[in-house]
């Protein structure tokens, strides 16, 4: 028998090759497991290569149409001297226009930070103008194209640069400004061989010039005063253009109110059109307004000032250095750690925006209104004229009805805005503005010579002021209430007086609660007041509203220092909890209850507790602790994985959130919220909400971190583009309709940032906000209150800052006493990006917060916030209290998810 042939041993190279192959396979398997099992990043990557479905394409088209409708009614014609606009054009006789300003070819469609979106597909001005039968000077376009790309002046033909998207990453705000072509290039005679300047050639092309000025915006950014003025290059450009042209149109591509005092020096600028950020297709509206196809009907949502530092709020916003920049350590407590402990004082009280300027004008004979206000709140022009007056005012059962007659006295059809304000009696006991928006109505399209009649209603209690010092309740003081119809906050058209015979104090001891309240309202935030020298009608120049913080304000109290140092959770013993208080968890029911079984079940039905009791402690901790751009699913109980993208102007994934959600889907970029507010049209706001909701559905989203509704306290906040207005009623009305529209489509809106979040600088470094309760309730909380009570919001996002000495995301007074017990909120509360050390997860849970936006721990939740919650729930010292917290949070979260479209 032959001996078996011995096997040849593997060579060293072969062994290495096999080892490498095995390592590659293991690595590949690990990558796939991580991408598709542990995380959703693999699905996100693959989604980038998927074609849009027919449903997505249809949604895009519909949303694009909505974008144009918003812009049609939201763009504001601020000035139109000598009726320069509209400019007639036609396919057979196209009008020619010269455009100046780099923003003409680099429009700001949206700004940066968490609300950023990809704007590659947004319609360019050149394309919209061509479609609208206008011809633009090609030499000027090439000049701006070349200068943008190379920084050199040339009219040589070149391709247009692409649209610029602002960065979603907050470390370095982008696209705030762009270099502009200075005036000396426009007057330079070397660009042509004939020795004439481009201005000379431009005038030969057309006698009409259109100047574009724009500013971007961003999270973690505040404008300096100079950034909201013309830059040196812009100023020289404006001067050069106005030296050559007598027909100049200025287009303002900014969400923040800029200083426009230069208009008084250049009568050549006949028309001023504000377009905010136009979004995907809104630039078509500029062209339609320019041609007269659309008659503008927008009204300003802010007061535009000669000097943005003139508002008292600016004196307590940030510290201005001699070089015009903000001090990087503005309002830092001197006895606090170097990297923590900043403060902001709302010393102006209720006198924010027009409420200061109009009241000062009405009560101070020495005050020069015109030297400070360029365009009042609510301003806006039309191509037609209207006569309007108050026909009658009636009060019945606590409801005031204002009957208004409106006649179109011009030559073209148009819409008007009926703005109703009131001036309450003033005794000095409660601070009150002389001008307060209480109702408004956008008219129908009224044909020339036609008269229409409108009934505008509001509740008597809507004119109540919050008395935080004496009655500590909403209060109507007896006396005359002057109800006026105005063209804007300054221009009275007609007025009538309604008299209240006796004081009405809305508390249990006197006249009971307001009809819109669940319980009688009383002070909750005395500890957040800070220095008590708030602005009054005495206009005391030595008060902090004018001087800014006093020297003693820079020393932190012990309560502030304790808040900076951290939080210790209360033990069960300290809370008086016993085993009898431990909720049932991990219960196995004879017949499991699925989430779909809970559809339509009221939240106070005991069945909800029975359903939640099926969750294990681990499941509850994961559900509450791991909520970055999603809500965890639980397949065994029919709980879907719920995607919740960021928002304000778009419903869609970003680079980071998409990897967590497992999708790259995104809807269109809408005009920014300031444009929506400037429509002064509730139907437009509702349309935007339903459009966003429809986009969410086709893209697989059932939640939306929007809308944002903090206040335009000043023009300097880099996130003003995300917010609606300086006026709480306008903001609340528009926001509540956006919320209602999206909610009707089964989308959970997370209204944000709750609350007192009107400044970006150092708001992530333990920023302490100090404000009296009247200003909080009448101004800063009111939009949120309306979004919840009237809009039906099922989500709230808390803010980074502290209110008094408590972080907003861990403030039980805010999240429980006010939000749930007073306002009746039934949904869930999520933190803002939960990545800063002071944002204590356990504090969040005890305070009434439900969900941590754990952007860092999303990949390994039990090593992060979910693990912290679970550990606290297993700790013998805190297990009962924390189990109660997790049970409550799970119930709030799942109740909201159950109302969403994804649960049938």
Plain-language structure description:
- With 904 residues, the protein is of the alpha/beta class.
- The protein is built from 25 helices and 28 strands.
- The strands form eight sheets. It has a six-stranded mixed beta sheet with strand order 1-6-5-4-2-3. Strands 8-24-26-27 form a four-stranded mixed beta sheet, with no helix packed on it. It has a four-stranded antiparallel beta sheet with strand order 13-12-17-18, with no helix packed on it.
- β26 (802-803) and β27 (806-807) form a beta hairpin.
- The longest helix has 27 residues, at 12-38.
- The model has no long low-confidence stretch (mean pLDDT 95).
Mean pLDDT: 95
Which strand order does the major sheet show?
A: 1-6-5-4-2-3
Give the CA-CA distance, first to last residue. 76 Å
Please bin the fraction of helical residues.
25-40%
Total beta strands: 28
SS element count, helices: 25
Q: Give the amount of beta strand, in percent.
A: 15-25%
Assign an overall shape: globular
Provide the structure class.
Answer: alpha/beta
Can you summarize the main beta sheet? 6 strands, mixed
Cα-based radius of gyration, to the nearest Å:
29 Å
Low-confidence stretches: none
């Amino acid at each position: 028998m032959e001996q078996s042939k011995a096997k040849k041993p593997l060579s060293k190279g072969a062994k290495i090759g096999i080892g490498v192959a095995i390592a590659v396979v293991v690595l590949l398997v690990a990558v796939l497991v991580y991408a598709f099992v542990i995380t959703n990043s693999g699905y996100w990557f693959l989604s980038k290569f998927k074609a849009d479905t027919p449903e997505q394409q249809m949604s895009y088209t519909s949303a694009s149409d909505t974008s144009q409708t918003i812009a049609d009614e939201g763009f504001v014609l601020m000035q139109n001297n000598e009726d320069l606009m509209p400019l007639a054009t036609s396919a057979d006789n196209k009008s020619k226009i010269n455009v100046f300003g780099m923003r003409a070819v680099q429009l700001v469609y949206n700004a940066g930070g968490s609300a950023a979106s990809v704007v590659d597909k947004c319609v360019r001005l050149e394309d919209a103008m061509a479609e609208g039968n206008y011809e633009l000077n090609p030499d000027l376009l090439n000049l701006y194209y070349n200068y943008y790309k190379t920084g050199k002046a040339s009219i040589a033909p070149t391709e247009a640069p692409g649209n610029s998207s602002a960065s979603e990453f907050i470390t370095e705000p982008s696209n705030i400004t762009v270099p502009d072509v200075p005036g000396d290039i426009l007057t330079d005679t070397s660009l042509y061989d004939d020795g004439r300047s481009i201005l000379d050639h431009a005038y030969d092309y057309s006698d009409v010039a259109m100047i574009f000025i724009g500013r971007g915006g961003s999270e973690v950014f505040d404008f300096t005063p100079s950034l909201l003025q013309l830059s040196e290059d812009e100023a020289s450009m404006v001067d050069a253009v106005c030296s050559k042209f007598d027909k100049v149109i200025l287009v303002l591509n900014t969400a923040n109110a800029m200083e426009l005092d230069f208009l008084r020096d250049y009568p050549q600028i006949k028309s001023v059109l504000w377009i905010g950020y136009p979004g995907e297709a809104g630039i078509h509206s500029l062209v339609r307004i320019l041609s007269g196809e659309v008659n503008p009907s927008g009204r300003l949502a802010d007061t535009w000032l000669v000097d943005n530092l003139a508002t008292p709020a600016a004196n307590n916003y940030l510290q201005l250095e001699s070089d015009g920049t903000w001090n990087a350590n503005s309002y830092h407590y001197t006895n606090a750690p170097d990297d923590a402990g900043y403060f902001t004082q709302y010393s102006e009280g209720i006198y924010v925006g027009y409420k200061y300027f109009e009241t000062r004008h009405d009560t101070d004979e020495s005050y020069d209104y015109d030297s400070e206000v360029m365009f009042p709140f609510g301003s806006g022009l039309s191509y037609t004229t209207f006569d309007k007056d108050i026909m009658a005012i009636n009060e019945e059962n606590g409801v005031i009805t204002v009957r208004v007659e409106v006649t179109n006295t011009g030559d073209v059809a148009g819409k008007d805005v009926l703005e109703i304000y009131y001036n309450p009696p003033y005794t000095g006991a409660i601070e009150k503005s002389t001008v307060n928006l209480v109702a408004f109505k956008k008219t129908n399209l009224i044909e020339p010579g036609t008269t229409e009649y409108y009934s505008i209603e509001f509740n008597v209690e809507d004119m109540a002021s919050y008395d935080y010092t004496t009655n500590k309740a909403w209060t109507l003081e007896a006396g005359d209430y002057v109800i006026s119809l105005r063209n804007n906050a300054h221009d009275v058209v007609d007025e009538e007086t309604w008299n209240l015979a006796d004081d009405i104090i809305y508390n249990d001891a006197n006249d009971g609660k307001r009809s819109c309240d669940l319980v009688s309202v009383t002070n909750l935030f005395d500890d957040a007041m800070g220095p008590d020298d708030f602005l009054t009608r005495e206009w005391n120049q030595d008060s902090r509203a004018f001087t800014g913080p006093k020297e003693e304000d820079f020393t932190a109290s012990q309560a502030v220092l304790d808040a900076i140092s951290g939080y210790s959770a209360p033990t069960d013993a300290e809370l008086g909890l016993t085993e009898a208080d431990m909720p049932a968890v991990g219960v196995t029911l004879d017949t499991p209850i699925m989430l779909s079984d809970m559809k339509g079940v009221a939240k106070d039905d005991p069945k909800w507790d029975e359903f939640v009791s099926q969750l294990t402690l681990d499941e509850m901790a994961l559900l509450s602790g791991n909520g970055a751009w999603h809500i965890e699913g639980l397949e065994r109980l029919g709980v879907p994985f719920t995607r919740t993208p960021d928002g304000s102007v778009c419903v869609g994934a970003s680079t980071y959130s998409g990897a967590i959600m497992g999708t790259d889907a995104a809807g269109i970029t809408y005009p920014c919220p300031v444009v929506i507010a400037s429509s002064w049209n509730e139907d437009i706001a509702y349309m935007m909400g339903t459009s966003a909701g429809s986009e969410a559905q086709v893209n697989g989203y059932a939640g939306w971190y929007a809308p944002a509704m903090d206040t335009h306290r000043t023009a300097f906040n880099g996130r003003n583009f995300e917010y609606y207005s300086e006026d709480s009623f306008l903001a609340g009305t528009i926001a509540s309709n956006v919320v209602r529209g999206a909610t009707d489509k089964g989308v959970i809106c997370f209204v944000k940032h709750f609350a007192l979040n009107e400044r970006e600088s150092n708001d992530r470094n333990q920023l302490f906000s100090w404000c009296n309760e009247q200003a909080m309730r009448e101004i800063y909380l009111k939009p949120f209150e309306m979004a919840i009570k009237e809009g039906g919001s099922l989500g709230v996002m808390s803010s980074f800052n502290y209110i008094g000495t408590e972080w907003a995301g861990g403030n039980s007074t805010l999240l429980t006493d006010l939000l749930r017990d007073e306002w009746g909120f039934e949904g869930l509360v999520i933190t803002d990006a939960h990545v800063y050390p002071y944002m204590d997860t356990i504090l969040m849970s005890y305070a009434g917060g439900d969900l941590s936006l754990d952007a860092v721990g999303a990949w390994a939740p039990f090593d992060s916030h979910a693990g912290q919650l679970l550990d606290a729930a297993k700790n013998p010292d805190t297990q009962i209290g924390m189990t109660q917290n997790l049970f409550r949070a799970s119930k709030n979260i799942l109740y909201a998810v159950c109302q969403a479209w994804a649960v049938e």
